[in-house]
Amino acid sequence: MEKLEENYDVTLHWRAFQLRPPGSPPISPQRRAQIEASRPLLQKRAREQYGLELNPGPFEVDSRPALVVAKYAESQGKGNAFHTAAMRAYWQQARVIDDEQVLKEIADSVGLNTRDFTTIVRSPAFSKEVDADIALAHEYGLDGVPALIFANKYLVMGAQPYEVLKRAVEKAQADGA
């Protein structure tokens, strides 16, 4: 995404989505084994194509607290910075992003005012914004991440190479979107 921002006139707008909301049935041992077995390939691809070393956090983290804090960060003009820091914390530093202390450290690292952090995490207003994003994803029929929508028109599902994203941006721009 950073490379797209550097090379094209695009603006990122992150939406909240809970892959496994509270109350979801447990992941079967077979599915978990399948996910774990795919991680070495994901790590290799990230290293070779993007120069990233992945060290993902624990499985089955409740992302909702991070999503709520992200909405607060957006309200303070630091949404993308928080999102980037939270993603790095989880995917590269194996941090537990549903832990309030970890989230507070991430928020502090991007310059957010965290004096009343517990109030922020439990904010009904920011929680409603998360719910609205999740409802919109369901309206679109989305049930997985990542899902990228370019110009409110072109959907790219799953982790895709840069060239696929580049083509989507170029298509949207060619269509005047």
Shape: globular
Percent strand? under 5%
Average pLDDT number: 91
**What is the share of helical residues?**
55-70%
> What is the terminal separation in angstroms?
18 Å
Oligomeric description of these chains: single chain
The strand count comes to 2
* Largest sheet: spatial strand order: 1-2
Order of helices and strands: HHHHHHHEEH
User: Which stretches of 5+ consecutive residues score pLDDT under 50?
Assistant: none
Please give the radius of gyration in angstroms.
17 Å
| Content-based structural category | mainly alpha
Number of helical regions: 8
Tell me about the biggest sheet?
2 strands, antiparallel
What does this structure look like?
The protein has helices at 2-7, 29-50, 64-75, 79-91, 100-109, 117-121, 124-140, 162-174, and strands at 147-150, 154-157. The chain is mainly alpha-helical. Strands 1-2 form a two-stranded antiparallel sheet. Helix 3 runs antiparallel to helix 4 (79-91) and helix 3 packs across helix 7 (124-140). The longest helix is centred in the first third of the chain and has 22 residues, at 29-50. The mean pLDDT is 91.
